[in-house]
Amino acid sequence: MPRITQPDLQAYLDEALAPAEMAAIEVELRSQPELLKQLAAINARRDAGVHSVGEIWRRQRLSCPTREQLGSYLLGALDQPHSEYIDFHLSKIGCRYCQANLEDLRRQQQEKAETTTTRRRKYFQSTAGHLRKKR
Ligand SMILES: [Zn+2]
User: How far, in Å, from the CA of 130 to the mean position of ligand 1?
Assistant: First the structure.
């Protein structure tokens, strides 16, 4: 990861970067408090009403993961920086929007798993029935 510059942070605040770049910057922000301070300073210049970093995160809803990413997260299919970022987003930032989204996905995946089990059972039964008829 190259050093993150002021213009990168500006673009980040504008959400003008590709999702992968947004995520990469967020990972850096997480590990570099100094960078987060810079981001806060830029944002403060833009909007004098904002005081805490937490407030900035919430106001900007800093690039919430997509539903697809949350789904992969649930399945444990994300690489470490991404899944760590989502952990951070959910528990440290406490994004209610994503928490609700994740809860919804969890329910869906559960339902899907149940449907698959039922389908497998039906398939097995019909195959067994078919074999029996052949005899
Ligand atoms: Zn979120």
Answer: 50
